[in-house]
Amino acid sequence: MLYRLIDWSRRLARRLPAGLPSSCALCGIAGAAALCAPCHTQFFSHRPPRCTQCAHPLTAGEQAPSLCGNCLRTPRAFDATIVASDYSAPIDHLVLALKFGNQLALAPLFARLIVDALLRERAFAMPTIMAAVPLGEQRLAERGFNQALEIAKPLSRAIAIPLAPQLILRSRETFMQSSLTPDARLHNMRDAFVLGPQAAELVRGQHIAIVDDVVTTGVTLNEIAALLKRYGAARVTNFVFARTPPR
Ligand SMILES: [Zn+2]
Ligand SMILES: [Zn+2]
What we know:
Blueprint: H1 2-15, H2 37-44, H3 69-73, E1 80-86, H4 91-99, H5 106-119, E2 129-132, H6 137-143, H7 147-159, E3 168-170, H8 182-189, E4 193-195, H9 199-203, E5 207-215, H10 219-230, E6 235-243
Parallel strand pairs: 1-6, 2-5, 5-6
Antiparallel strand pairs: 3-4
Helix pairs in contact: 5-7
The structure holds zinc ion (ZN) (2 copies).
């Protein structure tokens, strides 16, 4: 009976205009919340211990709060990463719906789930300024919006950290990181970002939050953090909705 009800709700949800907060984004059941309580419990209450620097799930031999083997072997330019979830089914569909299905109403939900993850951290140092991973002009024109910035807007309001949308800009177009091998990703992102006009003054001595929808290898976030540190940023923390789990 429950399954029939969920199926019925899903079909109904498909007929409703995208983005209305009239059904759960994951199971489609009707209700006022963007995510129903059972889905929240099922998909977002399990919090595996994660590396404080890159948010990679820690293995049995590694203990939180701690760094994963990758971060111990390869120093990162960023200092901390907060993620709301792993990038796996059905969460991946939410990300794709925002990015390629224009379901912008999902962005405030992602922001809220990042805030939930943040609130679970003990002794977390709050950033002083926020920016989103920028899109290249060509991709922005194609998509019409930057999904990272759409998440950053409600996140910035929720935790009262000022958003500086022009803090970081793309210096050139890059390939989609998801289409490349790990080595090619490094090359693709090298020197791909610059600071925006008057941004150097904003960055010096600050703790900067960088927002993105998905992190995989962390190459993009590392490139941005390295740029910010070169301009005197004191600390860089990433706020990301979903992290690709280890393969
Ligand atoms: Zn649900
Ligand atoms: Zn790590």
